[in-house]
Structures are given as C-alpha cells and as structure tokens.
Amino acid sequence: MGPPQQNSVQSRRPILHLRWWIGGLLFASTVINYVDRQTLSLLAPYLKQDYHWTNTDYANIVIGFRIAYSVGQTVCGRLIDRVGTRRGLTFSVIGYSLIAMATSVSRGLYTFATFRFLLGAGESANWPGATKAVSEWFPKRERGLATALFDSGSSVGGAIAPFIVLGVYFRWGWRPAFVIPGLLGFLWLVVWRKAYYRPEEHPRIGESELKMILADREDPGVKAGASRPRWRDLLKLPQTWGAIFAKALTDPVWFFVTDWFPIYLVAKGIPLKSGLLAIWVPFLASDLGNFFGGLASGYLIKRGWALGAARKALAVFGAFGVLLLIPTVLTVKLWAITVLFALATFSFAAFSTIANVLPSDLFQSNSVATVSGLTGTGAGIGAIIAFKLIGHFSDARVAQAAHSFDPIIVAAGLVPFVGMILVLLLVRNTNATKQGLVRPV
Question: How many domains is the chain built from?
Fold first, then answer.
C-alpha cells in the first residue's frame, strides 16, 4: 500500500507534535524486540539444567544470534535505505515475531542455535530502521532525545521481560514463554502500517511541523541530490569508523548484561528468585541514562555548543561511568552489585545514545541506515568475540565460583574507555566535510 494521496491531507485534522508519536512507535518496536530477545537469557539457567549445557554451549547459541545480527545490520541497513523505513521495519517485525514463536518447538542445542540465528537476522533491521526514521522526522537538536527514546526501549523491554517470561514459565513452562512475547509484534504492526509515512507524505502532519523538519534538512555543507555512497566509499571516512567504534566497543557491555546477567548472578551465589530486582534495576537505570544522554547533549547544543562537542562530552561521561563495573569483583553482596551495575548501565546508556545518533548526525538520509547497519555489524563482531571469551573464561574458572567472571567484568569496564578515545579522535571535521560527503560537527 502506497502513501495516502495528498488531497486527503487537507481533510484530516493534524496531530500536534506528530514526530513524537512516531518516536513512541519506534520505542514500542524496540521494547518488543528486546522482550523477544531476552526470553532465552532469562530461561537459560533452567534450560542449561534441562539440556545439560555448559557456559560454552550457551555462548555458542548466543553467538549464532550475534553472527546473523551483525551481518544482518549491514545488509538490512542498505536494504532500508533502498525500500524505505515503513516497508523495511514491517518485514523485520513480521520475520522476528514468527521466529520467536517458532523457538517453542526447539528440541536441543542445535535447534535452539538455529532459531537464535534466524531471530538475529530478523531483528537486525530495528536499529538501522529506527535511526533512519529519526533522521527523517527530527531536527538535529532533537535527534539525541529521539534516539534516546527508541533506544530506551531496550532497557524497558529488558526490565519487563522477567515479569512476562518468568511469569509464563513458572505457570506453563518454557515453550509458551517463547510464544506469548512473539505475539506482541503483530499488535504493533497494525498501528505501524496505519501511522508511519515520511513527513512530506503524512496525512496528519501540521504545516508548521513539516516546515520545521524540512528546513532542518537543508544543510549547505551537504550536496543536494547526491547519489547514495557505496560501502567502500563510506569505509574510507574516519567519521564512519568513529561511529563504528562507538558501538563496537560499548554494545558488548550491554549484551553481557542482557544475555549473561542471570548466569552471572547465579555464579555469584544469588538465586534468580531473590535476585529478580537485581536483574530489573540495571535496565531501569539504563533507561534513565538513555534520556539523560539525549537531554544533556540537546541542552548543550541549545547553549551554543557545537554538535560534535556536545556529543563527545556525553561519550566521555559514559566511558568514565562504566568503570564502576570493576568494583563488583570485590563483593558478593546483592545490593552492592545492583547499585554498581545500575550506575554503570546508566553511564553506558548515555554513551550508547550518542553512539546511536552519530549516523544521523554525520550522514545524509540516503546513507543513514547503511552507516547505522555498519555500526551494528561492528557491535555484533565485538559481541561475538566477547561472548566466545566469556564462555571460555567462565568455564575455565568455574571452580572459583563467585570469582569466575572477574576478568570479564574488568574488561567490560575498560573497553568502552577505549571506544571513547577513538570517538574523540575520529569524529571530527575533515576534507570530507568540506566536500559535502558528511555533515559538519
């Protein structure tokens, strides 16, 4: 179904601040995405016992997801730049919702790994698609907050997933725990298909809001009507690599929290039932950190800071904050672990918001999803390497019980700091900026 005809625009009352309703839809998509994704990690302690998996076995299952997810983000990012946000996210949500439900028929290690691989491929379009939608609907001063809004869906989805998934599991078993979350995507699709169009095609946008959005796209530093850059052309730019490293050296920390935190708590000697709050609080803290990053960078821009300086300030804040993971190696107290992880994930999320908004800050609309996909692939490669190491070292140190994850936690605290340094070095104005290949920062 194509966009509504322009003669219908005049007959329907505009929706005030429509762009934020669009942002809410992107948020809802990410929430559902993460509920589906979290199902396996929440059930992992129980499935490990049922199927006699080691941590290395579990790591291999999760790596299957990450391989498809990392490759899929680059492929899907390019595809969304070709077919558009509306159609691209429609295909994505249909695909991963069906696969999430189909996981309920798994029979062992290999079938779980297969379905996780397929789920990773299906979910890989969400971030490139949402980033492209933000670039289409929001002016640059609001992109940080809009990105925080949809990115916070990962935290909210992770926070509510234990109540949905474990609630279903304890009542009906693990198979329905995969089916019920998978149904949520189809409810979202009904609203998405009715509500999402580009601003210039939307029948319910107000004239003043449309003018504001279109005026912000008019950047004299970017060539009008420029052709879509090729992957190899984009990869020659330091700005592209700055955006890639911003994700590749931070997202694995978040993936550790989402995919390994329940197993980590059990290794610390904390039963999941008593540790449910500890699972939930870091996700809530991350949600707050998303909005802090978006609001703070937007505030700095309004105060006259250059776009690049405002974004980098939050990257520095986030990198220092994630170092708070390291003191958790010194304690097995639930409250201390919870507080330190909450502060670290708050800081991570502030950095993550900046990492997610960089493609829309730096690149034209016709390559935003492509670059976002490249950053997602970088994050996926980082996660695959991290998960292989996590599985190996946690199994090798299993006899040390509560301290089996200590080297992993120390590395998780330090790696985003390296990412921050690379962002400071690579995200800058260069000759490519003067040539109109990237936007000025």
Answer: 1
Number of CB atoms found within 10 A of residue 370's CB: 26
Alpha carbon distance 12, 197 (integer Å): 15
Per-residue pLDDT tens digits for 133-163: 998 899 878 888 888 888 888 878 877 888 8
Task: Specify whether the CB–CB gap between 324 and 348 falls below 8 A.
Answer: no
Neighbours of 366 (CB within 10 A): 16
pTM: 0.71
Torsion of CA 57, 379, 299, 199, to 10 degrees: -110
**Is the backbone of residue 333 left (phi > 0), alpha (psi -120 to 50) or beta?**
beta
CATH number, domain of 52, equals 1.20.1250.20
Q: Which domain, by its residues, includes 96? A: 15-216+230-434
Tell me whether residue 6 is in a domain.
no
Q: Is residue 224 part of a domain?
A: no
Q: Across the chain, which distance is largest between two alpha carbons, in Å?
A: 71
Task: Give the contacts of 68 (CB within 8 A, at least 6 positions apart).
Answer: 117, 118, 119, 120, 121, 124
- Sign of the alpha-carbon dihedral angle for 9, 15, 16, 17: negative
Distances (CA, A) of 418 to 2, 66, 154, 318, 372: 45, 22, 24, 12, 20
Q: Is 223 a domain residue?
A: no
